Amino acid sequence: MTRSFGLGERRRDRMDFGRERNGVEDAYQKKRHILPMEITEPNPRLWIFIILIGIAIYLMIIFPVKSFDGYVDPFYAPTILILPIVGLFRITCYAYRKDYHRHIFKHPIACTVGSRQDSASRMYTGETGLFRLENLHRYFLYASILILPFFYYDIYKAVAYNSALTFAALLLAINTAIVTVYLFSCHAFRHLTGGRVDCYGCKFAGKRRKSYFDFQSYFNAHHEQLAWVSLLMFILVDLYLRALSAGLPVNFTILHL
């Protein structure tokens, strides 16, 4: 005979789970680690991710792409020393945060869910400890905006040096356009454009500000897709310029100027 669980038994199960989870939380709080539990617990996904990032940075340092024929690799514009700023902007980006919190740390897929995806007994610490650094995203946004003009200068340099619009220069222009849209579709920038305004009608030029906010919100709705497309475009342009610097005949002139 199939056993049916009554309401009382289900309540006791929930209470037992609650006590078990509270015990895990209490033990964690007593330790007061700066590093969240998700960092210190055994997690091969995290270490594989860190190793891959480390290998990529190491290879970029020991095999740099120097400026040639007016072309500058976007990973080295204006210098590879700004790579930490760009990297911190991306790793604290809401689009990437959602992906690595869910897939690397197995955090809940919704705010109303309090347990981890892979185990209900494992605690979700939220943005605590080291994860608090993610709240500095807006400041990395400001720094990235200051770096952006160098990408436009590199387009001008590529065209002026060759007195022509080449395929390589066109790729640099497309990459710059995509990264610009990605940068200004950021959630932090959306807050600056009008996300903090409660009443547009009460503000100076409220209708104009509201129209600009709606325009930015359209791109913000596609921010995650733009984040990944811009990253892939960076990698594509880097590999293309590496092939070009190695002497492969992959460039051609589109328009003489």
> Taking Cα atoms only, what radius of gyration do you get, to the nearest Å?
24 Å
Number of strands: 2
Helix content: 55-70%
Distance between the termini: 86 Å
Number of helices: 10
Strand order of the largest sheet: 1-2
- Mean pLDDT equals 82
What does this structure look like?
The protein is mainly α and 257 residues long. The protein contains ten helices and two strands; from the N terminus they run ααααααβααααβ. The chain starts with 6 loop residues before the first helix and ends with a strand.
What descriptors fit this protein?
two-stranded antiparallel sheet, 257 residues, 2 domains, 10 helices, 3% strand, mainly alpha, disordered N terminus
Summarize the structure.
This protein has a two-stranded antiparallel sheet. The protein has helices spanning about 5-30, 35-40, 45-60, 85-90, 95-105, 135-160, 165-185, 185-195, 205-220, 225-245, and strands at about 165, 255. Helix content is about 60%, strand content about 5%.
